[in-house]
Specification:
Blueprint lengths: L4 E2 L11 H9 L15 E6 L10 H12 L5 E6 L10 H7 L3 E2 H4 E4 L25 E5 L5 E7 L13 E5 L1
Parallel strand pairs: 1-2, 2-3, 5-7
Antiparallel strand pairs: 3-6, 4-6, 7-8
Helix pairs in contact: 1-2
């Protein structure tokens, strides 16, 4: 993306490390401001490790990534955070305590928000493997007005294209 975004590989088998994502993030320069209608922001798509990941635990990844992304005036971090929104004391709560805003919670209109509705790879051995989960999220570095959020590509309005559905927000 030319205007301040970066999209590192986020497939779970070839996920870039948090350090690699930050290195790429730091290489970005603020785009020239073409006019008063342009809003500068950073959009970074990411896939994070699990809370108790032995190689790259979520907390270490989050600290590195949020520090670099949070240096931008407005930043959006989105993707598979592998951290359930309704599980307390783990990744979701860490992100909230870091001052980032969950756009789902900010939205005036929202659906159920579940992006995983069946057992999927990486979660099959969990006691709640078949439970609905909201692990794909869009976070913003500051509180913003969000008109709506909805799950997309989940087989209801659009075809299902992955074991994770997408998230769409309207600002």
């Amino acid at each position: 993306m030319r205007h301040g975004g970066v999209q590192p590989c986020t497939h779970h088998r070839c996920r870039k490390s948090a350090a690699e994502q930050v290195r790429r993030l730091q290489q970005l320069e603020d785009p020239p401001h073409p006019g008063h209608l342009c809003r500068r922001c950073l959009v970074l798509h990411s896939a994070s490790g699990w809370w108790k990941d032995e190689v790259e635990p979520f907390a270490a990844q989050w600290e590195t990534l949020s520090r670099a992304a949070g240096a931008k005036k407005t930043a959006f971090l989105l993707g598979d955070f592998n951290s359930e929104a309704d599980v307390r004391g783990e990744g979701y709560d860490l992100v909230l305590r870091s001052g980032w805003q969950d756009t789902y919670r900010l939205a005036q209109q929202r659906d159920e928000g579940y992006t995983v509705v069946q057992a999927i790879d990486g979660w099959r051995d969990a006691p709640d493997a078949a439970a609905k989960k909201r692990i794909d999220q869009i976070w913003c570095s500051q509180a913003i007005a969000v008109k709506s959020t909805r799950v997309v590509f989940n087989g209801l309005q659009e075809p299902q294209v992955s074991d994770h559905a997408g998230v769409l927000i309207e600002l």
